Amino acid sequence: MLAASIFAIVLLAGTSPAASDGFVAIAGGPFQSTVRYDGDDGKRSVAAFAIASHAVTVREFDGFVRTHPQWARDRVPSLLADSGYLANWPSADADAPVTHVSWFAADAYCKSFDARLPDWAEWEYVAAADATRTDARSDVAWRGRTFQDGTPRAMDARSGANANFHGVSGMHGATWEWVGDYATLMGDADKRGAENGDRLQFCGATGLSFANRDDYATLKRVALLSAMEPRSTLGNLGFRCARSTP
Prior knowledge:
Elements: H1 2-11, E1 23-26, E2 29-32, E3 43-46, E4 49-52, H2 58-67, H3 103-111, H4 120-127, H5 140-148, H6 152-155, E5 176-177, H7 199-206, H8 216-226, E6 237-238, E7 242-244
Parallel strand pairs: 5-6
Antiparallel strand pairs: 1-4, 2-3, 4-7
Helix pairs in contact: 7-8
């Protein structure tokens, strides 16, 4: 009965007050991922899809909570969000990327207007672009900026000034992002569920499954996501939505 109730909450659909536009079309194509799975070479084929041009903001998520009150901080079940859920409300900047949201909450938000969280390959594919190139990862200077960028402009979910080749903003800002299949991002020596709490060892192990260990921005994001549970929340972890192309 409890499992059925949780499932119903997660999949509850409705009309979100957040605009369902603001998506940009991504053509897709072959892509060399930094992440290797089970010893593969990291080569991927990313199908065409659409992704939101900016991360979901506090204002947009607040509208979702108002129309889906079961996701309010004082009503969400502990199995779907930890005690940090929306912990920075109501003081959070309404136009900043929403953070302190669990994977369950992010998934429900996107599904509320027929969208979904992007898969890791999709997120990584879009994040590889700079303003003029679809894949700028060989540029050492650009790679350094993606790893260190925490400027107010990068933190602004709606800023078009830092948009990449695809017209997508904030991929390398101070707020990192959930992906739909985050649980597949495990290192060779997975410590999920370990009781010793040594997450530094876990993050180091994650690096062993990388094809390019110089891609620091990607490595750090995978290390973080690998250590999360779907109910976990963090002050620097938000999300954006995506849609499959029919």
